[in-house]
Specification:
By secondary structure, the chain is an alpha/beta fold. It has 10 helices and 10 strands. The strands form 2 sheets. An 8-stranded mixed β-sheet has the order 4-5-6-1-7-8-10-9, with helices on both faces. Helix 6 (about 135-150) packs parallel to helix 7. Mean pLDDT is about 85; it is low at about 250-260.
Length: about 300
C-alpha cells in the first residue's frame, strides 16, 4: 500500500503544508483526492474525502470532472508539463476557464489580462500570443497560477510549486499563491520538501513518512516543539540550514537496525527512540493536545 491510515482536514482559507522526503507519497496523496491518476495506473482508493458535504470518492467520473473544473485546481511541479506545446497560451487559458464557466462561455479578454497582471505578468498580451516553449519556467508558473485561480476554486493543490524555479523567484511565486488565499478565501494544500517554505507560508504542518501521516500541528507549535522523532529530525536539519529534507542522511545513518518491520512502526529503522514494541505494532495517530496529532507513544 502506498498510503494508509491517512486522516486530515483543510479549513477554509487555510494553508496546510504537507512535508516529507521524496517518494513518501505526497504527490500520490494529492492525486488520490480527486482520483487524478494516469489511465494506465491501477489504483484502489478506500475511505472518504469530504468537500462541502460531498464524498469525492463516491462520485462518478462526470461529477469528478465538474469538481476538477470548478472546485479543485492543481499547480504541478513542472509547469511546462501542464501545457500543450502546440497551442498558444491564450488558447489554453480560454479552454481552461471556459470549461468552468456556466454554459462554457469564454471569459472576456480584459478578464484574462487582468488575471495575468494580478499574477505579476506585466505584458499579458505578449504572453497570451506566445507558445509554452517561448516562455521562461518562471513565467509559465505564473500563467499556471493565474489559470488555476481564475475560476475561484475552493481548494488549490500546489505540488512543489517552486521546485523548477530559480531561487530569486521562489518567494515571489509563493507570495503570489498566498495572496489569492488572502483575497478569496482559497484553501491551499502546499506540498513541499522544503521546511523553510512550510515555516514561511503554512498555517499548519502535516508530516508524511512512508505513506503515513506521523504528525499534524500548528506551524508555530511544530517548529517550537516537534513531537514525532521524524519531525524532530526534520526540524534539526532545517535549523542546520540544509537545502531540503532530501539532504537527510541515508536510511542507515543511525546505525541501521537489521530488518524492516512490516507490521511495526515504519520509522523504527531510523529512530533513536525505538523500542521493542515498535517492531510489533504500528502506533495510531493520537491527539496529545488541542490541534496536535502524533503517531508515536513516546512523544513525551
Amino acid at each position: 500500500r502506498i498510503l494508509e491510515d491517512i486522516s486530515f482536514s483543510i479549513r477554509r482559507a487555510e494553508v496546510l503544508a504537507l512535508v516529507g522526503e521524496s517518494g513518501c507519497g505526497k504527490t500520490t496523496l494529492a492525486y488520490a483526492l480527486t482520483r487524478l491518476f494516469p489511465a494506465s495506473a491501477e489504483m484502489e482508493i478506500r475511505g472518504t474525502a469530504w468537500m462541502r458535504g460531498r464524498d469525492l470518492f463516491r462520485m462518478s467520473e462526470e461529477e469528478l470532472l465538474e469538481i476538477r473544473r470548478h472546485d479543485v485546481r492543481y499547480i504541478l511541479q513542472e509547469p511546462a508539463q501542464a501545457f500543450s506545446p502546440v497551442r498558444s497560451i491564450e488558447e489554453q487559458f480560454r479552454a481552461c476557464t471556459s470549461a468552468a464557466n456556466a454554459g462554457g462561455h469564454p471569459p472576456h479578454d480584459s478578464l484574462i489580462e487582468s488575471q495575468l497582471r494580478r499574477a505579476g505578468i506585466d505584458e499579458p498580451s505578449h504572453v497570451l500570443h506566445a507558445y509554452p516553449h517561448e516562455l521562461s519556467v518562471g513565467t509559465l508558473q505564473r500563467v499556471l497560477i493565474a489559470m488555476a485561480t481564475a475560476t475561484s476554486p475552493f481548494l488549490l493543490i500546489a505540488d512543489e510549486p517552486t521546485s523548477a524555479i530559480d531561487a530569486p523567484l521562489r518567494r515571489q511565486v509563493l507570495d503570489l499563491i498566498v495572496s489569492f488565499r488572502n483575497d478569496s478565501g482559497l484553501s491551499i494544500l502546499l506540498i513541499t520538501h522544503d521546511l523553510a517554505v512550510a515555516e514561511g507560508y503554512a498555517d499548519r504542518i502535516a508530516v508524511l513518512y512512508a505513506g503515513r501521516i506521523v504528525e499534524i500541528a500548528p506551524r508555530a507549535a511544530f517548529f517550537e516543539r516537534p513531537l514525532h522523532p521524524y519531525s524532530q529530525l526534520l526540524v534539526q536539519y532545517a535549523l542546520a540550514s540544509l537545502a531540503s529534507i532530501d539532504d537527510l542522511p541515508p536510511l542507515d545513518w543511525f546505525g541501521g537496525r537489521e530488518g524492516f518491520p512490516p507490521e511495526g512502526c515504519l520509522f523504527y529503522p531510523r529512530c533513536r527512540m525505538g523500542r521493542g514494541k515498535c517492531r510489533i505494532s504500528e502506533p495510531p495517530l493520537e491527539s496529545p493536545a488541542a490541534e496536535r496529532y502524533v503517531r508515536c507513544p513516546y512523544w513525551k
